[in-house]
Amino acid sequence: MLNSIYLNCFIYFILVFSVQARDLKNVLESKTCFSNYFAFGVATASYQIEGAWNVSGKGESIWDRYTHEHPERVFDHHNGDVADASYYKVKEDVRLLSQLGVGFYRFSISWSRILPDGLSNNVNEDGIRYYKELIDELRKNKITPVATMYHWDLPQSLQDLGGWTNPIIADYFLDYARVLLDNFGDTVQVWLTFNEPLSFCSDGYGGDDAPGGRSSGFEDYMCGHNMLRAHGMVYRMFDQKYRNTTKGIMGVTLNLPWMEPATTSQEDQKAADTARQFMFGWFAHPIFSQDGDYPAVMRSAVDANSKRQGFPRSRLPKFTAEEVKAIRGSYDFMGLNHYTTYLTKQGSRKIKTKPSFDDDMNVRISQKDDWPKSNSTWLRVVPWGFRKSLNWIKANYNNPQILVTENGVSLEPGLHDTKRVNYIDAYLRALHAAIFKDGCRVFGYAYWSLMDNFEWMRGFSERFGLYEVDYKSPNLTRTPRLSAKYFTSVAKTGCLPDDFADYTYKTD
Ligand SMILES: *[C@@H]1O[C@H](CO)[C@@H](O)[C@H](O)[C@H]1NC(C)=O
Ligand SMILES: *[C@@H]1O[C@H](CO)[C@@H](O)[C@H](O)[C@H]1NC(C)=O
Ligand SMILES: *[C@@H]1O[C@H](CO)[C@@H](O)[C@H](O)[C@H]1NC(C)=O
Ligand SMILES: *[C@@H]1O[C@H](CO)[C@@H](O)[C@H](O)[C@H]1NC(C)=O
């Protein structure tokens, strides 16, 4: 008895120390290092880089339609018709990834390139060929493919049926996911069903992004509801029919901007929690919490407002008990996008007759003037918010395994991007503290983005790339920035280098 306990301890001791030998060495040399098993990668999305919007059988997506019908709504009338022409540059782009030394590449699959009409009775063989070629090239270069099934480019033909506001969309998404798993399940092991439902439901169906629903307080909730149902259905199918044969894992990417109370007052702290629940809990609570379903604050606020506004039922739809059960726990890991932080104050509490998400949430959001700016109005550099976000997720959802699927900063064009180096370095230090000091379980980090690309309503004006893209050259030449050199060093050594100097952002 004593022997076997002793033996177990001994084996444990050996395991722990062999895994952490390098870390121990680095601690002694006072370097900030991630473990051998931590993965570094970069991310992109189909509409933002592929171009080739109308070739080889691809169907029209809502972003094709929207940018063509409403060019005036997009910065300088830009669109993704050509974008970075990545559809034609599989080898070149994988070479960029290989030069970065990253372990994984997160890309998304264009639904309408695979199913031109959105429906699975018509599969576009060229779409299958394109992604097979990309995946094979990645694997040849020992880069793990991480595929997002939906990064906002819904087939227009499905939008014509109401898109994410029509409950039938969940069935069609399930059909699409089946086609993806049948064709790519043997070569892709890491799947994300959706990217940032908060963005495509709020901005797409309740705001100005494609398809331009502008029906906040109604369509955004319907979109979220059907997206959650669709996610649960796909995860259950994956679990039952594909997990054992593909040996894959599946998650969903949610975005959490950190919400910090503007003052220590009880109202502002409550406002911060309400904002976290509306913006993140909306999707995280049904999937990642013990109880499932929508967060209680959201349920009660929307129910109460709907009643006061004279509606016979809540504007926030209700799940059946079976749906709650199918959605709850439908994850192997959480994909997290995090960029920035906001301050929260309690809203004015005037319930408007015209409903909206903002009115339901009733929180005033701002940023501090002295937080460093980026080239995006919504994005300021606040590294400590990243650590707080990770800790809040740990505390609220039973410390799930997390893959950071996006983190990044926009700056004006230029190759000597020390501000981007500083941003990544500061956010990685915050992440390191969250893992090693706080015990958050994060197994990888993807920088957004591999290269400059079509930044939705901001066109090509806001640049997030490690590689600069020259939009004036017909070749769309990619050139590594200083940040690409920095990130190469991080990806290859697993440690934050100290020879890039000029680290200026406070991390706590
Ligand atoms: C595809 O779109 C481009 C504009 O981006 C247009 O010039 C071209 O004629 C279109 N091709 C087809 C086959 O419709
Ligand atoms: C998958 O494999 C595990 C372990 O071999 C087994 O217990 C489980 O029943 C399998 N699941 C399905 C759906 O076949
Ligand atoms: C972003 O950079 C452009 C110049 O490339 C500038 O005109 C614009 O004002 C900047 N936007 C922000 C929010 O800093
Ligand atoms: C564009 O690419 C072609 C083929 O690689 C090359 O011959 C040409 O010099 C490039 N042009 C520019 C302007 O970079």
Explain the overall architecture.
Pfam families: Glyco_hydro_1. One of its GO terms (molecular function) is beta-glucosidase activity. Keywords: Glycoprotein, Glycosidase, Hydrolase, Signal. The chain is an alpha/beta fold and 508 residues long. Helix content is 43%, strand content 13%. The protein is built from 17 helices and 13 strands. The strands form 3 sheets. It has an 8-stranded parallel β-barrel, surrounded by 5 helices. Strands 6-8-9 form a 3-stranded mixed sheet. Strands 12-13 form a two-stranded antiparallel ribbon. Helix 8 (169-184) packs parallel to helix 10. The radius of gyration is 23 Å and the shape is globular. The chain starts with a helix and ends in a 15-residue tail after the last helix. The model is unreliable at 1-20 (pLDDT under 50). One 2-acetamido-2-deoxy-beta-D-glucopyranose (NAG) binds next to loops.
Tell me the Rg in angstroms: 23 Å
Largest sheet: 8 strands, parallel, barrel
Helical proportion, percent range: 40-55%
Secondary structure category = alpha/beta
Could you tell me which ligands this complex binds, including any ions or cofactors? 2-acetamido-2-deoxy-beta-D-glucopyranose
Order of helices and strands: HEHHHEHHEHHEHHEEHHHEEHEHEHEEEH
The average pLDDT score comes to 94
Low-confidence stretches: 1-20
Instruction: Please tally the helical runs, counting DSSP H or I stretches of 4 or more residues.
Output: 17
Which descriptor suits the 3D outline? globular
User: Cα distance, first to last residue?
Assistant: 48 Å
Physical arrangement of strands within the biggest beta sheet: 1-2-3-4-5-7-10-11
Number of strands: 13
Report strand %: 5-15%
